């Protein structure tokens, strides 16, 4: 009689498909001890949801820039705690990402938001910047709608499309530097003591809460400081323009 309570099991082919990776990679991770051995029935191995969750975690961490060696080191040293900690931290950002989901939009509609024609080079330039993704000849996917829509609106208001294309990489570069510095300090001041203590599970909720609270605080500070610096830059530019006008007025007429 089959035990109805048994967890769903699947073969390595199904596991690889659900994890969006190759069978070869699944077996390689198994060989390295990153996932537990499957339950064997004859020569066939059967995997569970637990294996799938671990593979999705590995794939996600690799996608976020972690090396396989770093992932392997963390998981093998403390398999249960390290995996739970990583999943919790990733979930913080998944919640933020869910608030700004990708969105498919026609080229014509996107062009209308910026007041340009559907064949304008700005759309292809946004694809190159990683803000849009090609879907078909008529549609694109907005990977960051909260960036694309304001960018299109700024062009409609009067900003040159080339100016938008020029600004985006500069903003990204400086924000990456700010983010790296912020993460460095949070890692040193909040996470490292927890890691040094051996990842005690009873302390993790408090550490997680601190990190969860610091992320929106950092965002608020960046926005507030940008507004202040932007105001100063506007005042300086106005001063320069007034000086230019005054200089032109002082020139003798012919």
UniProtKB/TrEMBL annotation:
Record-linked InterPro entries: DNA-bd_dom_put_sf, MerR-type_HTH_dom, MerR_fam
Key words of the record: DNA-binding
Domain HTH merR-type, chain residue ranges per copy: 9-77
Single GO MF annotation: DNA binding
A Pfam family per the record: MerR_1
SUPFAM superfamilies, per database record: Putative DNA-binding domain
The keyword Isomerase is annotated on this UniProt entry: no
Protein name (database record): DNA-binding transcriptional regulator, MerR family
Protein's organism: Aeromicrobium choanae
